[in-house]
Write a structure and sequence with these properties.
This protein is α+β, with helices and mostly antiparallel strands. 55% of the residues lie in helices and 17% in strands. The strands form four sheets. Strands 6, 7, 8, 11 and 12 form a five-stranded antiparallel sheet that branches. It has a four-stranded antiparallel sheet with strand order 1-2-4-3. The N terminus and C terminus are likely disordered.
Length: 521
C-alpha cells in the first residue's frame, strides 16, 4: 500500500513537472519577439570585391536565435517520442539532450537562410545567381549575436542601344524541285533493304566478314561482323581508310590493313600496339531501293506520289520559314551584342565555360575522336568555350533587360503549347515532360527562352525589313543591267554615226548647191 502511494505521488510530481515545462514552453513562444520585416540598417554591411561581386556581412541578434530555438523545440515537443512519456508530454530538457545537435544545425540553417534572404532584398544591387556561403563553417554563439558573411555576383548595369528601325534582311524562301527530289530520295533510302550481291563491294555497301586482329601478343577474332564500306572502326580501333580497304572485295576474298591501336583504347593490353586486321569476306550486301510510285506513297500513308511530293514540299517550306525567322532573330541578337558593352560576372561566366568545354569533350569522344587528339587541341577548345560562354552570358543579360523594358510576360498557355511541341517531337506525354522539366529546373530555362523570343519579335515589329534578293536573280539582274548598258552604248554609237552621216550629207548638199549657183551665175 505504501509502495502504491509513493508510486502515485511520483507520477503526480512528474505530471506536474510536465505541465510546468509545457507552460514554460507556451509562455516562451508567446513572449517570442515578432518576426522583423527587415534587418536593422547597421546589421548589414556590403564590401565590393570586384565590379560585379559583393561580400555581404550580416549580424543576427541573439534574441532571434533564441526565438528560433523555442519555435523548433516547441514543434518537436509536440511530436517527439521519448521513452516513459506520452507524445507531446516530454520535458524540454530531455528533448534538448536527445535532439540538441540536430536542432542546433536546423536553427543555424534557418536563421542564416532568413537573414541572407532579407539582406539581399534590402541590398542596393540586384544579385545574380545563388550566393556562395560556407555554411558548415558557421557556428552559433552561445550568448552572443551571430555574424556571418557570404559572396554574391551582381547583375551588370548597362543601357540598351536604340533598336527601333534597325535594318534586318529577310532571307528568301524558295523550295526547288531538286530539294523535293533529294528529300524524297531520303525517304526512299529509309525504306530500302540490303540484299546480297555478287558484284564487288562499293561505297556504302555492307560487308559481312570474320575479322581477325593480330600482332604483339594480340589474337582476337570477331565472327560475322557487319560493317559499312566507309570510314569507321573495328573493336574500338578507328580505321580512316576502311572504305578503301573494303572497296572491290567479293565474297570469299580476304583483305587486310595495318594500323596502331590508340592510346585511349578501352583494353589497356592493346594500347599503342601495332596490329594487323584481316577481313575474311563472307558476303556483300547492297541497298535495294523501292520504286518511286503511288504504291510507295501509300506505304507512307499518302494517296499518291504527287500527294507525297506536295507534303514534302510543304514540310520543306515550313522548315525554311522557321530558318528564315531564326536568321532574322540572329541578326537582332548580333545587333544587340555589337552595340552593347558591359562587364560580365567572372565566376558565373567561368562556370558556364567549364560546362561548355565538358559537353564538347564528351561529344567528341562519342564521335570516336581519340582522347589524345582531343587533349592536343584542349587549349583551343577551352578558348572557344570561354568565348561562347561570354557571348551566351552577355546575351542573357541583354535579352532579360529588353524583356523587362518591354514588360513581356509568359503565360501558362504559352508554356504548355511549347511543351506540347517538344513532347510531340520526341513522342512523349506533355504532362509527364512538364513534371520532369519542373524537377530538373529546365522549365525556368524554357520560360526564359520564350520570353526572350517574344522580346526579339517586338524588335522585329519595329525593324526595317529588307527582302533578300536571290543570288540567281542578282546575277541575271546584273547581266541584264550590263546588257542594257552595252545596248545603250551601241545605240549611242549608232546614233552618233547616223548623226555624222546626216551632218555630212547636209554639208555635201549645201556645197553642191553653192557650186550649182556659181555655175548658173
Amino acid at each position: 500500500m505504501v509502495e502504491e502511494t509513493e508510486k502515485t505521488s511520483k507520477e503526480q510530481k512528474e505530471s506536474e513537472a510536465e505541465k510546468t515545462e509545457a507552460a514554460d514552453t507556451v509562455a516562451d513562444e508567446n513572449q517570442a519577439p515578432a518576426e522583423q520585416e527587415e534587418l536593422p540598417p547597421d546589421a548589414v554591411t556590403v564590401e565590393e570585391i570586384d565590379t560585379l561581386r559583393r561580400k555581404v556581412t550580416v549580424r543576427v541578434d541573439k534574441s532571434k536565435i533564441e526565438s528560433k530555438f523555442d519555435e523548433m523545440f516547441g514543434e518537436l515537443g509536440r511530436s517527439a517520442q521519448i521513452p516513459g512519456f506520452r507524445i507531446g508530454r516530454a520535458p524540454r530538457r530531455l528533448i534538448e539532450k536527445r535532439f540538441g545537435k540536430e536542432i542546433a544545425a536546423d536553427v543555424r540553417n534557418a536563421v542564416v537562410a532568413e537573414a541572407m534572404d532579407k539582406a539581399l532584398k534590402q541590398a542596393d544591387f540586384k544579385p545574380f545567381g545563388n550566393p556562395e556561403i560556407k555554411l558548415e563553417e558557421i557556428e552559433l554563439p552561445e550568448n552572443d549575436d551571430l555574424t556571418f558573411s557570404f559572396e554574391v555576383d551582381v547583375v551588370p548595369e548597362f543601357e540598351l542601344p536604340d533598336y527601333e528601325g534597325i535594318e534586318i534582311t529577310r532571307p528568301s524562301v524558295e523550295i526547288t524541285d531538286k530539294q523535293v527530289d533529294d528529300a524524297l530520295e531520303g525517304y526512299r533510302r529509309g525504306y530500302g533493304r540490303f540484299v546480297p550481291t555478287d558484284k564487288p563491294a562499293q561505297k556504302d555497301d555492307v560487308i559481312l566478314a570474320d575479322v581477325v586482329i593480330s600482332g604483339e601478343g594480340i589474337d582476337h577474332k570477331v565472327p560475322n561482323a557487319e560493317m559499312r564500306v566507309a570510314a569507321g572502326e573495328v573493336e574500338g580501333i578507328p580505321i580512316e581508310n576502311l572504305a578503301d580497304v573494303l572497296t572491290g572485295a567479293r565474297a570469299g576474298e580476304t583483305c587486310e590493313v595495318s594500323t596502331k591501336v590508340p592510346a585511349a583504347h578501352p583494353r589497356e593490353d592493346w594500347r599503342d600496339k601495332q596490329v594487323k586486321i584481316t577481313f575474311e569476306v563472307k558476303d556483300v550486301k547492297r541497298l535495294e531501293l523501292p520504286e518511286l510510285n503511288d504504291a510507295f506513297a501509300e506505304r507512307l500513308g499518302f494517296g499518291s506520289l504527287s500527294e507525297l511530293r506536295q507534303a514534302i514540299r510543304d514540310d520543306l517550306e515550313a522548315r525554311a520559314n522557321f530558318q528564315q525567322r531564326q536568321s532574322m532573330h540572329e541578326q537582332v541578337k548580333k545587333f544587340l551584342l555589337d552595340n552593347t558593352d558591359f562587364e560580365l560576372p567572372k565566376e558565373h561566366t567561368q562556370r558556364l565555360a567549364d560546362r561548355i568545354l565538358t559537353r564538347r569533350y564528351i561529344n567528341l569522344l562519342n564521335l570516336g575522336v581519340p582522347r589524345e587528339k582531343i587533349d592536343e587541341n584542349l587549349q583551343k577548345l577551352r578558348q572557344e568555350a570561354s568565348e561562347q560562354a561570354a557571348v551566351e552570358m552577355k546575351l542573357y543579360f541583354i535579352l532579360d533587360k529588353l524583356a523587362q523594358e518591354m514588360q513581356i510576360e509568359v503565360d501558362d498557355a504559352e508554356v504548355n503549347a511549347r511543351i506540347a511541341q517538344i513532347a510531340a517531337r520526341y513522342n512523349r506525354r506533355p504532362e509527364r515532360l512538364r513534371r520532369e522539366m519542373t524537377d530538373d529546373g529546365s522549365l525556368e530555362e524554357l520560360i526564359a527562352t520564350i520570353r526572350s523570343e517574344k522580346a526579339i519579335e517586338k524588335v522585329l515589329e519595329k525593324a526595317k525589313i529588307v527582302d533578300e534578293v536571290p543570288e540567281e536573280e542578282t546575277s541575271s539582274t546584273k547581266a541584264s543591267s550590263e546588257a542594257d548598258k552595252q545596248g545603250k552604248s551601241a545605240d549611242r554609237k549608232k546614233a552618233s554615226k547616223v548623226k555624222s552621216k546626216k551632218s555630212a550629207s547636209k554639208k555635201g548638199s549645201k556645197k553642191s548647191g553653192n557650186n550649182a549657183a556659181s555655175k548658173q551665175e
